[in-house]
Amino acid sequence: MISPYSDRLPALTHVRHDLSNPSLLAGGIALTLAALVGLELLPARTMDLAAPGAANGPYLITADGRQESSAVQWLDAGRLRLRCNYASPQPYLGCGLTFILTDKDPTRGRDLSRFDTIELDLAYQGPAPFVRLAIRNFDPRFAKLEDANSARFHSVNLRPRDIARPVT
Do the Cβ atoms of 163 and 140 come closer than 8 Å? Predict the structure, then answer.
């Protein structure tokens, strides 16, 4: 059956590219190799949170949110070495350090969408069965400015043997 609209359709023309042309093949291979080499020469996307100006902090903090506590103290702030020591064992209380990636407005944090991994070089000594890595972000759909604990919280517990090498 012939369509009544066939007279309105543009005529199809056939364009044939000769893919066996050695010049085109060599050029394609050269462009591919150049792209692969160029990719390796691009600078890595990194952010060192300990570098001056990269983040606010670090701040020492305990599990109850107090920044000034005898349970946590700097051993060497320049090398980010700290000691967490509770007078009596507290199985779920911990302490650590915090980097803040916002300025004065906590709803306007740093855009980390161009990163796809986090690499940490940690060292731990002590009796705790795990070290917790946690990150939070402010999401206005459920976080409230007046409640610092309402930010979205992501964490992972790492065994001390898991952090014997840098963690990615």
Answer: no
